[in-house]
Write a structure and sequence with these properties.
Strand content: under 5%
Order of helices and strands: HHHHH
Radius of gyration: 39 Å
Oligomer: single chain
Length: 262
């Protein structure tokens, strides 16, 4: 994830630069700070350190002209800040993963609810189709009966039967139009359900993968905590675990976005 990688790089860069500044402070202190130029450089470095890591809260003693803590303690403070800042970044990444999982679960629930509504709508449409077909079949039988009567009746007596035939034909055709519209709605319902079924399947796969991302985040946090407890200065193992988590998360995020907008 770019946000985590950027934050991690900023933390490492600030800690590295702070270490260089502390080294220069040590050199100036060893030389005795005997000149105004040395004093000014010393003050500027202290300002730079406070700007880089405000938590250091360094101050120069007015009487000694030196910072309010020795350089060894300062190096320890920088390392502690680095570990705390890294731990915070990891915790935020872990929180992000949980939030993303929650969003994926919400998307799944929404898709399932829509599919359930479409299922109920499909039942209504199917029942309406049966009703229309039954009604059209009834009208067809009436038309057939009228046709037979017309064939058995002389021209003078067929007038009323022809009018009845026209009315029945009109009603039959209207039912045909309603059936066509109903069929379109049923097909649209089927298409929407198929799309949601695919979305639900992909969302479930995404959620299953998020379980792995959460496990990765938890492992990275645990590894970091263990290394801090053991006093490790080089967090190479943590970096590897975190980068694995970040890489998998980015691929998953792309998949989730595709699922969300589909």
């Amino acid at each position: 994830n770019e946000n985590y990688a950027s934050t991690k790089a900023e933390i490492e860069g600030a800690a590295y630069a702070a270490g260089i500044y502390v080294q220069r402070l040590q050199e100036l202190e060893a030389a005795g700070l005997n000149t105004a130029v040395a004093h000014r450089e010393y003050e500027m470095i202290v300002e730079q350190l406070n700007g880089l890591i405000p938590d250091l809260n360094l101050a120069i003693d007015e009487q000694t002209g030196l910072i309010n803590k020795n350089s060894d303690a300062l190096i320890g403070d920088i390392e502690a800040w680095k570990k705390n800042a890294t731990a915070k970044a990891l915790q935020e990444k872990y929180t992000d993963v949980l939030e993303e999982q929650g969003a994926a679960e919400a998307a799944l629930i929404d898709a399932q609810a829509k599919r359930n509504r479409l299922t109920e709508e499909s039942k209504i449409l199917t029942a309406e189709k049966s009703r229309l077909e039954s009604e059209q079949s009834r009208i067809a039988k009436q038309l057939d009966a009228v046709e037979q009567q017309i064939n058995r009746t002389n021209a003078e007596g067929a007038y009323e039967l022809q009018k009845q035939k026209q009315e029945l034909t009109k009603e039959y055709n209207l039912l045909g139009i309603s059936l066509d519209e109903n069929s379109e709605k049923i097909q649209d319902n089927i298409n929407q359900q198929n799309g949601l079924e695919n979305q639900i399947k992909e969302s479930r796969e995404t959620l299953a993968t998020y379980e792995g991302q959460i496990a990765d985040a938890e492992n990275a946090l645990k590894l970091f905590a263990d290394e801090c407890e053991n006093g490790g200065d080089k967090l190479t193992g943590t970096d590897k675990a975190v980068q694995t988590m970040v890489g998998r998360l980015q691929a998953l995020q792309d998949e989730y976005e595709a699922t969300r907008v589909s």
